[in-house]
Amino acid sequence: MKLINKKEKNLLLSLSILLLMNLILFQVLGQGKRRSYFQQLSTLKKGKAELIALEKEINNLKNMWLQWRKVEEDINYLEKYFYGEENGFEKLRQDLNQLFQAAGGQFSSLRYDYARYDKIGIKKVKITFRLTLSYYSLKKFINAVENLPKFLIIENLRFSEIDSSTGRLQVDLGLAAYFRK
Q1: H-helix or E-strand spanning residue 107
Q2: Please, what's the largest Cα pairwise distance for the chain?
Q3: How far apart are CA 13 and CA 17, in angstroms?
Q4: Which of 105, 125, 124 is nearest to 172 (CA)?
Q5: How far is it, in rounded angstroms, from Cα 24 to Cα 30?
Q6: pLDDT tens profile 1-34
Q7: What whole-number distance in Å separates Cα of residue 32 and Cα of residue 29?
Q8: Of 136, 142, 135, nearest in space to 173 by CA
Q9: Quick one: which of 174, 150, 167, 171 has its CA closest to 159?
Q10: What pLDDT sits at residue 153?
């Protein structure tokens, strides 16, 4: 007894051939799709790596921006310590008169050296003069300069004469005042 007759055998053979042709066709067509899949997968990995790099760059730029914002706040805070463009020289002269009165000595040879504003809008004005006073008065003068709420800085201090009998000093001083536009 035969399990399969001739007609069924031919049908199985043709179905097997058809299956084999389908497998070959799918293998050939699928090869392109497979290649495309791996290319897209590679592109996806590169895209993820670029995204991570861009996110890091964004965070770095954000941190840098926050730092510049802090600098801007600091500059705005420091504005009150600069002499202003308007009435700044008058305020400087008033501050110097207060300092001279606080020291109680005599000043002479007062000279101002004006400079131009730099790129960021700050100008330094040098003030040179000679003070004749006692050591204690010099300490008071230096303390008054340090406690002044403006950018007035002692740049140069030179003792030109010391009188040991009276205790009087002659001091050549150079101050720097800072102005902002």
Answers
A1: strand 106-113
A2: 147
A3: 6
A4: 105
A5: 10
A6: 577 888 888 888 999 999 999 888 888 877 878 8
A7: 6
A8: 142
A9: 171
A10: 93
